[in-house]
Amino acid sequence: MTRPPNILLITADDMGGDTPGCVGGPPDVTPRLDRLAAEGTTFERAHVAAAVCQPSRSAIMTGRWPHRNGAEGFEPVRAGVPLLTRLLAGAGYRTGILGKVTHLQPVEAFGWDLALDRERLGSGRDPAAYAAAVDGFLADAGDRPWFLMANAHDPHRPFSGGDQEREMFSAEQRAGYPAPSRRFDDEPVTVPGFLPDLPEVRREYREYLASVRRCDDTVGAVLDAVERAGATDDTLVVFLSDNGIAVPFAKANCYVHGSLTPLLVRWPGVTAPGSRVREEFVSALDLFPTFCAAAGVELPEGLDGTGLGALLRGSPEPGRDDIVTVFHETAGKRRYEMRCVQDGSTAYIWNAWSDGDTEYVAENMRGRTWPAMVAAAEDDPALRARVGFYRRRAPDELYDLAADPDCLHDLGADPGWRTALDDSRTRLLAWMEQVEDPLRAVFQAHLDRSREPA
């Protein structure tokens, strides 16, 4: 009987989907991720299910939408929902997790053979500590196949070298993890197009890139440990981020840049070096059935993801023309129900919470970027409108992704885009009915009201 592959799942914390160089990001920031992409397959239209940490990770490890696994916010996965680790353990796998341990709840339900959280890993920011942990885990695995989820805490706030880092981490804590192998303090940068190009935004983006580089250092340290163990050729490696950057119009939203993730897969003997999947949309939900198929594990009933085997082998796969993403709750336990359907041409967002009075407040408004936007808005009418819109939104948002990939101009109320709006609404309603979204009746009522004569 052929031994199943080892599975190494590496995650970043709050890395934008277009940040690594291999997906169009700035050059020389992510050399190890770029090398991993050159050795395997890059998915250009990959999205997480929900753009905030715990729900995103719970969806990966259950293969189910948050409302179907119980972890819509920072709650535990519902009892009785099949967990990836338990299925793999039943097939003889040794399982381990490094970092973000408590972001998969209840911890004991996952049955990890090894669980090391951030305090054992230099606040989740020490590449050498990750390498040592991987060395020990692989040595203890012996001849057994293994599944390891290695979760970097970079580039989550506080960003490297910033004021917030000094405020949140003591000098002793900062001494416990190294600086990135490269900084970008004096280098010209181009901030993401969905953010205004302001001095403080550029400054924070440089700090973010430093944290991205240290995440890349951690990825390299983990991959080097696998190579030292002689396991590279027997290991399926997957890298992705749990959500986008922790800035406005990204993390903790349904905007495209909130859910877009850099998904890289290297599977010796399966993926072609340097291959890219450009047209098909894929979801982080698809990883669960992909891992089960690789391990020879029977799929449980009720999964929402679809395996990536055909795409990894270079075959096109019909039926991946669009994708839905969701949002329920911020880390601060504030509820903002959102749904998005996008197809590469348009992105439609339904903000169930938007009533003209409720104000959006989330962790992506900490740091330098949001205060800089608010301050600059005093003298800039266009930015003032964008800041005000971010706080309260509109129930329906629609974006022309061909002309406006950064989603700067909402067309939801534009009569010329009514047909596209109705088409997107129809597709979203069909999805909500298919997965029994708890808000499907609310959405239907919203659609009925919008069709009433003025």
Automatic annotation (TrEMBL):
User: Lineage of the native species?
Assistant: Bacteria, Bacillati, Actinomycetota, Actinomycetes, Pseudonocardiales
EC assignment: the record states 3.10.1.1
Signal sequence range: none
Organism (species):
Pseudonocardia alni (Amycolata alni)
> Which Pfam families does this UniProt record tie to the protein?
Sulfatase
Q: Does the keyword Metal-binding apply?
A: no
Q: Which CDD domains match?
A: SGSH
| Occurrences of domain Sulfatase N-terminal (ranges) | 5-297
InterPro entries referenced in this protein's UniProt entry, alphabetically: Alkaline_phosphatase_core_sf, Sulfatase, Sulfatase_N
Which Gene Ontology molecular function entries are recorded, alphabetically? arylsulfatase activity; N-sulfoglucosamine sulfohydrolase activity
Question: Which UniProt key words apply to this protein?
Answer: Hydrolase
Protein family according to the UniProt entry: Belongs to the sulfatase family.
User: Mind telling me what this protein is named?
Assistant: N-sulfoglucosamine sulfohydrolase
